[in-house]
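Example record for the data management plan.
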Amino acid sequence: AVVSTQSTGRPVIPGHVLVSPKRVEPSFTSLTPEETFDIFQGAQQLGSLLKQHHQTSSLTLVIQDGELAGQSVPHVHVHLLPRQPGDFQNNDDIYGEVERVDSRRGGNRSEEEMEEEARVYRTLLTEMVSKSGE
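Corresponding structural encoding:
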């Protein structure tokens, strides 16, 4: 695969993770067809895992492509956010919160917390893949 996933040091809500191509590319429209396929396939697989793990039926996916769209890191990435009832009073407020949190420097979680979350998701993803092959 040509994508990577990572926890974010500045999560908007519990379970907020990122999927990005391994190649650093600032613009979504400059991704190769393979990278585009892989980033969305990765988001779909990780989204299934997040829905199950966070016991929800809904996800918000966000791509900010370019500075005017709120992109603060010059590397394409998709935000996956597992949604819960009432997590935002106005459902669309999540987009402004992603932009606000994304623009801050530094994180509010330790490396250890992010590594533990990544370990949990890796284990769940491995289990999910092995079950699909049965």
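Summary line stored alongside the record: Helices lie at 33-53, 93-103, 111-132.
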